[in-house]
Structures are given as C-alpha cells and as structure tokens.
Amino acid sequence: MIKVCLITCYNQPDYIRARTLRAAFSAMDDVELIVVKNTHTNIRRYPEAMWRTIVARFKHHPDVYIQTFRAYESFPFFRLITAGKPFIFDEFINPIEHVAYENGYIKPGSIVTKIARLGYKFWLLTVRLIITDTPSHARYSAELMKLPITDYVPLIVSTDEQVFTPKPKKIVKNAPFTVFYYGLFMMPLQGLDTILEAMVRLQHKNIQLVLIGGKDSTKELVKEAQDRGANIVYKYRVPFEELADYMNNSDLCLGGPFGGTVQAQYVIGGKTYQYLQTERPVIIGKNEESHIWTDKKNALIVDQKDPKQLADAISWAEEHPKELAAIARSGKELYTKELSIKKLTQQLRLLLTNEHIL
C-alpha cells in the first residue's frame, strides 16, 4: 500500500485539476490517499494548509507528496515541510510562460525574468517529477527551464464525471440553434474576441450564443457585439454544478482555445473534457494537441484567431444535425477511451511505479 499525500493550497480548493486527481487516486485499491486542502480562500489558506501538511506527515507518514495546481508561491514552503520525502509538483502551466510570454507582465528577455526563471528552476530541481497537462506543454516547459524532458510527466485533466453527465436536450419549438461557451476569467488564450466576431457574422441566422463568465469588461464587449447584431445571452456567473445543464441543453459547445497566444498552442481546455463527457459536439481550436481529434468525426476543428472559420463551422453544424449527433457520439467514445478518470488512473499508476519516485 502506497501512502499518497495530495496537497491543495489554492483560492479554489476544488479546482477541477485537484478534483480529478483525488478521484483517480481514490479509485486505486493499492493507494491510501491523504487529502490536504484549505478551507479558507484568503491569505489564511497558507498557514492552514501548511499546518495540515505537518500533521499529515507525522500522523500518516506518507510515502510521497503531490502538490496540485496552483501552487507557485507556496511550493517552496511545502517542499521544506516535506524535505527528505519524494515530492511531485503539479506545475500544470509554467509560471514563467504565464507571466512573461503569455501575458507580458514582465519582459521575456529582462533581468527580472531571468532571475525569476533561475529561482523557480532552483526549486524544481528539488522535486522527483514535474506534472503538466499535455505532452507539448511538458516539452515547452522543459525547454524554457533548460531541464531534461524526463523530469516531466503529462497527465490529462479529465473532469468530474459525477457532475458532468449526459442528459437529453429539452425540446423547445422554434428555439434557435444554441451554442454554449463559458470561461471564469476569459483569458487571452480563450479568444473571446474571436467568438464574439464569429457571432456577429452569424447575425442573419437563427443561431444564439449562451455565454457565461468573464470580467467586468466582458459585459461591455458582449454589449458591443449585440449592438452589431450578434444574438447572445450573457450571464456573469452560475453555480458550477449548473454548467452541465447548460451544456446538455446546447446544440454545440465551444472548446477552443481560439486566442492564438503562446499558451493556447499547448492546452486542451478543461471545458472540452466536460463537453465530451456530456456527449455534446465541440469545436476545437487547432494547436499542438488537437491532433487527437479528427475534424467532422469526433469534433470540429478550426484555426485559432479566425472568426470566419469559426462562424463557418458553427453554420455547418447548424445545417447538419445528423452529422453533428454522430460527432457528439464519437467525441464521447474518444473521451471514454483516452481522456476519462479511468485513463487518468492508469497514468497515475504508471507515475507511481516510476523508478525515480520511491
């Protein structure tokens, strides 16, 4: 029996990455899972999670510790607490990539970026393995940090299969063809501008976008698109558990990413796993990971940052309901085979048998 201590210290302690890792480990009969997570979501989460980790170390004597996303700022402290024991860090997204190359908060070639990279690399050298979300992200991070690719292990994100389940779509007479998209912050990689422009192009068709999430500025951008003729229903927030209902009552879901940014080249959006699990047809933004889908077989694939292509794909979907239903079924089959919790459990089993771990 292997004792695994899974640590989460984040203002969203039940973020989907942590949920799926807990579910996958819980499905393993030969693993005793010790869950450490914060209940406070403000600054008090740090001492709370650290104290719980100390208690777990002396009470349960874990064989290995894994810290889940997002943990960049607290990672060094937890590494010190767990010193002497194997530690796996779920990087998920490289922070240097995020702040310098994706969002430009600091200049990529600046002394600040160089110092930040060296500091982050110092702590990465203390862990047994680094987890990312996709193989291409692993390669990118390894190159960026000048570390061997063998230090990295990509793990699929998957989704909460208890929350996201397929249900029959409610039939409403003369209802528009409904396209669904959501994003908590509408980050650049998601390509909200591309989505809104595509809907403007579709204004003369009976197609409606249901859009959830974003920042304060999102409402203004939506209003501008509506003024230009786009048919959009916008909601700022809905409870997480209700998202599955919106998916199940949509004709088509937008997975993306559509932003064309650095980060958008390496990710599979968490929402894409949810759409596939609920057996909804999905549009994927072409990138380093989109090769696992086949266009018009188990998804629709479009170039990123191309509103015309996106509009054309949505229009095709609206005009081909039978083909779209077949795409949804094939997408669900792909999820079950390659992207499910069961698949994640298999990946974790391989990770725990890695000769570098124990």
How is this fold's topology laid out?
Blueprint: E1 2-8, H1 16-26, E2 31-37, H2 45-60, E3 64-67, H3 75-81, E4 87-92, H4 95-102, H5 111-124, E5 129-132, H6 135-145, E6 152-154, E7 177-183, H7 192-201, E8 207-213, H8 216-227, E9 232-235, H9 243-248, E10 252-256, H10 270-277, E11 282-285, E12 300-302, H11 307-319, H12 321-339, H13 341-352
Parallel strand pairs: 1-2, 1-3, 3-4, 4-5, 5-6, 7-8, 7-10, 8-9, 10-11, 11-12
Helix pairs in contact: 1-13, 7-8, 7-11, 12-13
Which characteristics define this entry?
alpha/beta; Rossmann fold; 358 residues; 2 domains
The total count of strands amounts to 12
Please report the distance between the alpha carbons of the first and last residues: 12 Å
Give the integer mean of the pLDDT values: 96
Tell me the overall shape.
Answer: globular
How are strands sequenced across the largest beta sheet? Answer: 2-1-3-4-5-6
Main sheet record: 6 strands, parallel
User: Radius of gyration, Cα only, in angstroms?
Assistant: 21 Å
Domain module tally: 2
The named CATH superfamily of the largest domain: Glycogen Phosphorylase B
- H/E element order: EHEHEHEHHEHEEHEHEHEHEEHHH
* Number of helical elements: 13
User: What's the architecture of the largest domain in CATH terms?
Assistant: 3-Layer(aba) Sandwich
Strand content: 15-25%
Query: What is the helix fraction of residues, given as a range?
Result: 40-55%
What structural class results from the helix and strand content? alpha/beta
CATH classification, class level of the largest domain: Alpha Beta
Reported by name, the CATH topology of the largest domain is Rossmann fold
Poorly predicted regions are: none
